Structure formats: structure tokens, C-alpha cells
Amino acid sequence: MEETNHTAAEWLAALPADSIAAVTDITGYGLLGALTAATKGMGWMVRTARLNTHQGVDAMLKEQVVSGLGDANWRDLGDGVKLDPDIPSLSAVATLVADPQTSGPLLAVVSKDLSKRFLAEGAPFHVIGEVREAGECVLRHQ
Asked: Tens-digit pLDDT profile for the chain (142 aa)?
């Protein structure tokens, strides 16, 4: 793990509780599991080009060095996910979002206005997509 969640947690803790729709750490079921849990009954779109990965991950995925649980996670959770055809490598993206071996970063579901404020104030967050009240769950590259 390169950094802890402490700073991100402090930013979130300073907010009124009703300004955060959901927050969870990304661990055992990977990003896909965290999204599924945090957005029950909602739709979402994640831009895979915005996902932060550690140095060397892309090369490992190209060599098909993956965890054994990633495939199981995808089978359990991937049925309702639409993969856009613009994704360069569907299998690599599916592996990445379902991989359970993460460092446990936080996933926070907040309003668009709040995410803009965070970014303007230099918060340690990355916007990777959007949540919708209803609709499809989509992985899109750009």
C-alpha cells in the first residue's frame, strides 16, 4: 500500500452525514463489489481510463497475471454490467475491476457539486464516474 485512507477519511468526516450517499473501502470484491454494494438499485457509469493503478499493473494484465478470485468475483457480480465496446481489453478491465487484491482505497458516492468542490480544494480524490438514480451499470473507457 502506497498511502493510507487517513487523509481521505478526514475530508469525509468533516462533512455533514447527509452529504455522502455511501462510502466503503474497496477490498474483497474489488471495485465492482464496492460499487454494487454502495449503489444498490441504482445505475452507474465508470470511466476505466480514470482508474488509478499501480505501476506495472497494465503489464501484468497483458501477461495475464491475475488473482484467482477475480474471475469468481466477475462471475458473481458482472452479469448486470455492460462493457462498452470502446474498452481496449475487455478481459483486462473485467479483471481489474473485480480483483480483490487492492490496497483498500475508499469509494465515496457524493453529489457532483461536492466532487467538484473536493477537486477545487485539492482533496485526495479521483472522480471515476457517476451514479444515476436508475439505469444500467456501465464500464466505459473514455
From this structure: 456 778 888 888 888 888 888 888 887 788 888 888 888 888 999 998 888 777 888 788 888 887 778 778 888 887 888 888 877 666 777 778 888 865 678 888 988 888 888 889 888 888 999 998 888 898 888 7
How long is the chain? 142
SS3 string, the chain, reads: CCCCCHHHHHHHHCCCHHHEEEEEECCCCHHHHHHHHHCCCCEEEEEHHHCCCCCCHHHHHHCCCCCHHHHHHHHHHHHHEEECCCCCCHHHHHHHHHCCCCCCCEEEEECHHHHHHHHHCCCCCCCCEEEECCCCEEEECC
